[in-house]
Amino acid sequence: MNARTLRQFATFAAIGVANTGVYYAVYASLNIWLPYLAAHVLGYAVSVTGSFLLNSYFTVRTKPTWRAFARYPLSGAVNVVGSGILLYLAVSGLGMDENISAIAAGVLVTPLSFLLARWAITSGAAATSRPEVRLPQPQPEAAVRIREAASSR
After folding, report:
1. What's the confidence (pLDDT) of residue 81?
2. Terminus-to-terminus CA distance in the chain, angstroms?
C-alpha cells in the first residue's frame, strides 16, 4: 500500500469512528420523541451524509457530486452484509464470542468498504469533471512592442 492510500485509509477509519458517534448521538436524541426505528433511519441518513461529505473532502480530497452521493451507500451496504456474514461464521462456525466477533468482523470488512467508498466518490467526480480550458495569457507590454516592431519591418 503506498503512502497516499495508507493516509486515505487512516482518514477513512477515523471518520468512521467519529461517524459512529454521530449516528448514536442522533439516534439517542431522536429516540426520546420518535419510535426507535424512525430514529435509527434518521440517524443513519445523517451519518451517511456526513460520512460522504467528510470522506469526499478529507479522504479523497475532491468536490462531492450527486452521482458520487448516489453510489456512496453501496460501501455501507457491503460493510453490513460482509460483516454480518463474517459475524455468523465466527459465532456459528468457530464458536467465538458474539461481541468480539462483531468487532472483528467490522474491522475485517473495513478495507473493502474503504475501497468501495473511494471508488464511489472518485468515479462520481471523474464523470463530472471537465477538461481544463486554458485562456490566452496577457502578453507583457515589452513583448507586444517587439512583435509590432518586427512585423512593421
Report:
1. 87
2. 62
- Given a cut of 80, is residue 88 above it in pLDDT? yes
For 95, left (φ over 0), alpha (ψ -120 to 50), or beta? left
* pLDDT for res 79: 83
> What are 113's three cell numbers?
468498504
- The rounded distance, in Å, linking the Cα atoms of 47 and 26 is 8
How do residues 10-23 score in pLDDT, each as one tens digit?
999 999 899 889 99
> How many angstroms separate the CA atoms of 90 and 77, rounded?
20
Question: Using an 8 Å Cβ cutoff, are 43 and 149 in contact?
Answer: no
The answer to whether the beta carbons of residues 102 and 132 sit under 8 Å apart is: no
pTM: 0.70
Beta strands in the chain (DSSP E): none
Q: What is the DSSP letter of 94?
A: T
